[in-house]
Amino acid sequence: MTKVVYEGWMVRYGRRKIGKSFIHMRYFVLETRLLAYYKKQPTDNMVPLQSLVIDGNCRVEDRGLKTQQGHMVYVLCVYNKKEKNQRMMMAAYNIQDALNWKEKIEFVIDQQHGLATDNGNSTFVSRDLGMDIERNVSSSSHGRNPEDEEENNPNLPWRTTTGNGPPDSVLDWTRDQLSPRKHWRLVRCQNGLRIFEELPRADHLPRGYSKAMKAVGVVDATCAAIFELIMSMDGTRFEWDCSFQHGDLVEEVDGHTAVLYQRLQLEWCSRIVWPRDLCYVRYWRHNDDGSYVVLFQSREHSNCGPQPGFVRAHMESGGFKISPLKPRNRGPRTQVQHLMQIDLRGWFVGYFPSFQQHCLLHMLSSVAGIRELFSQTDEVHTAPRIPIMVSMTSDSVSSEKEQKTQEISIQPGVSLDQVFTDNTHPLILDEDSDDEEDTHILDAEEEMELGSYCHVFQKNIEEMDVDTSDSFDTSCFSGNLRWDDDENSRDCWRLPDGNNFKVRSENFFKDKSKIPAGKYVMELVAVDWLKNATRMDNVARRSGCAAQVASEKGLFSFVINLQIPGSTHYSLVFYYVKKQLEPGSLLQRFVDGDDEFRNSRFKLIPSVTKGSWIVRQSVGSTACLLGKAVDCTYVRGEKYLEIDVDIGSSAVANGVLGLVFGVLTSLVVDMAFLIQAVSPDELPERLIGAVRIAHAELSSAVVADLGDDPLEE
C-alpha cells in the first residue's frame, strides 16, 4: 500500500463553465506519488473524486486570498507544468493549514524530481507508477466528478498568467512614491514600542505631507496569527486598533491585492474636526523565511468616491512587516514593524501641526494593541482566521443568505479535523447543494496594445568587474538600453560590484557560511529593453542582436529574458558572453542539462539599491530559485542558451511587479544570476553575471522585430 505523507480536511475550490465558483469540504490525501480527495475520510479501496499524479513536473502555487461564501479562503493550485490542464485547486480557512499543505506537496515533488534525476532523466516519474496509483487514477477518470468539468476539459483555455495584477483603476498605485531616504531616528519609546522617524532629504519631501514614522515591537505569537489579525476588517479589529472605525472591501483585484475603504477613529477635537476616511490599495506577500509583508497606499477608485461628512486623507505609504524571531521559553516571538506616512488634509492640519503628529502616533499604537491582545487572550493563538469584509458595491443580501453565512462560520478554538468528523456538518456542502451558486468570481481580461516608439541606442563598454582571463573585444556588441557608469545617470544600465552579493562558500554545508561573490564568470555585453503587443519568446533569434553577433564570432551567449506582462508586453534582455564553456563545469552541465535540472538550479539574487521602503520590503534581497517560483522556458541554440522568465506566471511575482512598475523611473535595481551549488564539489558558488538597472523609462523601450518564424531549437 502506498505511504500516506499527509492528510486532512481542506476546502475544494473551483469554478464552473458559467463562471460561478464553488467550495466543498473534502478529505485530501497526499501520497508519495498521488494527491487525491474524497467526500469523506477514505476507507479501503475507496475511489477518490479526483486524483492528480505528482511528479517532478508538478508545481504548487498560492493564489492568495479569495472571498467565498462569507469567508476568506487561502487558495493553492497544484498543476503539472507540462500538462497544465491537469490541476487541482484546494484552499483553507487558516493560512497556516494552507502553508503546511504547500510545504508537504513541494516535499513530495522534490522527492519525485530526485528519482527522475537518479534514473537519468529518461523517463517521467508519472509513467512509472505502482499498481495502486494506476488503479486509483483510472477509477477516478471513469467516474469523473461533475464539479470538475471546467478544470478537466482540455478545450478550455488555460490562463498561464495566474495573477493579473492591479486593474486599470489602480494600475499606477505607487507612482507617487517618495524618493529613498537613508536613516531612521528614534524619537521616543511609548507603550513598549520604539517609535522611529525617517530622515528624508528635504528637497525630496512633498509639501503638506508628514514625515514617515514607524513603530517596532515584539509580539509573542506566530507570524501567521498576526498576519491574519492584521488582514481582518470586521469587529475583531476594535480589540487592537484604536484608530479603526469601519472597513469595507471595494474591489478584490486578485488573491494578493485588494482595494479597501476605511474610516478612521482619531478622537482629536471631534466637535470641530471632521472625521477622516481612506481609500487605498492593500498588497501582501509571504516570504520564504516565514515573514509577511502587507503594504498600503491611497488610490482613487470609481466605486469609492468622497463620503458625506468625511475628509478623504491620503496615505502616501504604509504597511506592516511581520518577521519571525528566535523563540524564548518555547514560545513564538515575532517582530512587527508598522510604517505610516499620511496626509490627513483639511484646513485644520495647516493651523495645528500637532494634530497630524497625534493622529499618526495614534495609528502606530496598534502594534501595542496586537501585543497586548495576544498576551491576554489564549483563543487568538489557537484559531486565528480571516473574516470577510462587506463590499461597498454589492447588493444587500437576503436574510436567508445571511443565515446560511452564519451557519457555516467556524467557531474559534475548533480544528478542521474536529469540525468535520461528523459528515453532516453544515460546512460540508454536497454536490447538489444550491449554496455553491451564491457567489460569482469573474476573471478580468487584459487588452493588448501595440506601442509606437522606436529608438536605437549605441552603448560603449569600458571597465567591467569580470574575469579578464576570458576577455575579448566587446566593441562590436550593442543594445538599445545604453550603458553609463555615472551613478547619477538615468535610463541606463551598469555593472554592480560582485562583492555586493553573498554566495555559498566552500564550507557552506558545514557551517552555512557565505562569502562575497567577487568576479563574474561571463561578461555582460548588452541590454535590450523591448516591447510588443504579445509576449516575446526566443528573442535571441533576432538578426543583429548581441547573441547572434557573438555566435558569428564563435562566442557563447547566456541570454536572460525577463518577460513583463501587461496591456503592452515588455522584455528586459541581458546578454552574457564567454569565449567557450569549460567542459564538465557546473555552467556547462546547466547549459546542456534538461529543464528539470535547470529549474532546480537557476537562482536570482535581487536588491533594490534606491527605492521607497514599500518597494524594498516587497522585492526583498533573498535569493530565489526562479525555476520554482515562475515559469521558465529554455531555448538551446547552437551557440546560446536563452531563458525566458515569465514573471506573470506567479501571482506573488505579478503583484510585486505591479508595485514596482508604477515607480520604475525612481528605482535602481541590482540583479545577480547564478547556478545553485548542491554538493561540496560545486562550491564555492560563482555569479554568472549581474546588472544594475537605473531609473528605466517605459518610453525608451523599442518595439521588437521578431520576424515571422522562430529559429529551430
Automatic annotation (TrEMBL):
Q: Which GO terms describe its cellular component?
A: endoplasmic reticulum
Protein's name in the database: Protein ENHANCED DISEASE RESISTANCE 2-like
Q: Which CDD domains match?
A: START
Keywords for this protein: Endoplasmic reticulum
- Residues forming the PH domain are 3-110
Classification via PANTHER family:
ENHANCED DISEASE RESISTANCE-RELATED, PROTEIN ENHANCED DISEASE RESISTANCE 2-LIKE
Q: Does the keyword Disulfide bond apply?
A: no
Q: What is its main location?
A: endoplasmic reticulum
Source organism:
Musa acuminata subsp. malaccensis
Compartments (UniProt record): Endoplasmic reticulum
Report whether Endoplasmic reticulum shows up as a keyword of the record: yes
- A Pfam family of the record is EDR2_C
Q: Where is the START domain?
A: 184-356
